[in-house]
Amino acid sequence: NAEYMGSIEQTFACHLMAKRQLVVFDFDWSLVNENSDTFPFASLAPELMPQFASLRSVPEFAVWTDLMHHMFGELKQKGVSREAYENSLKQIPILEKMTEAVHFAAASSNMAIVSDANSIIIPIILQAHGLEEVFAADHIITNPAHWDAEERLHVDYHQPRDTPHNCPNCPRNLCKGQVLDKMLQEAEYDTVLYIGDGGGDFCPGTRLRPSDHVLARAGYPLADKLSNDAARSLIQAKIHLWNDGFDIFNVFQQTLRS
């Protein structure tokens, strides 16, 4: 019947429109050229910076998210307002050509961010660089954060504390590999590009296929790890080293079908 045929046509049209490429960015030192967690501290309360190093050895702060939650309390004690904090985030730099690279990819690909930062930080910085339209809210996977009535920022684990992810390679708050697995189960992609720099970006790299690509920032922990043959053998995807937004743009042009 006509209704049935209409629904088939609709489904077929949706299938044609569906983007078959997925581009996933880590955030700090990848999409942005800074540590978005510590940057506001360095500019607004530099006297707190030594605590990031000294408290890392305290067992209760072994997970970075717990340390950040504590440090946001310290920032509140210093009298730093929400407005000052959010204005500081807007100063976080992005590498030259990176914005153009992101817009280029978004024309043909689904875009996502998987980050150990938090849900307050990322949208503010994206907006400051005109990228808020590129990444849908449900494609920004990170630690949940909120402001309380006293303007103290709270952050918690992305991974529910009562259901651990049990991945030996990742911190308790977030396994980026399992997040990527879920994305790949929800939609079918011909090609996935993963852009990262840190040790936490190794696990998602191991979930990719030979048709996919890992873009590892040269001179950073992920690239260092991939220089080890045993680690590299766990990655099926093609590996590209990058230094700046021009390199990212070039890889996008070579690998993404428009």
Q: Would you write up a description of this structure?
A:
The chain is an alpha/beta fold and 258 residues long. The protein contains twelve helices and eight strands. The strands form two sheets. The protein has a six-stranded parallel beta sheet with strand order 3-2-1-6-7-8, with helices on both faces. A two-stranded antiparallel sheet has the order 4-5. It is globular, with a radius of gyration of 20 Å.
Write the layout of secondary structure elements.
Layout: H1 2-17, E1 21-25, H2 39-44, H3 49-54, H4 64-77, H5 82-89, H6 98-106, E2 110-118, H7 121-128, E3 140-143, E4 145-147, E5 153-155, H8 176-186, E6 191-196, H9 202-206, E7 213-217, H10 221-226, H11 229-232, E8 238-242, H12 245-255
Parallel strand pairs: 1-2, 1-6, 2-3, 6-7, 7-8
Antiparallel strand pairs: 4-5
Helix pairs in contact: 6-12
Number of helices: 12
Question: In which range does the helix fraction lie?
Answer: 40-55%
Kindly estimate the percentage of residues that lie in beta strands according to DSSP.
Answer: 15-25%
Q: Would you tell me the overall average pLDDT?
A: 93
Q: What is the CA-CA span between the terminal residues?
A: 36 Å
Low-confidence stretches: 2-16
Structural class from helices and strands? Answer: alpha/beta
Report the radius of gyration as a whole number of Å: 20 Å
What is the element string, with H for helices and E for strands? HEHHHHHEHEEEHEHEHHEH
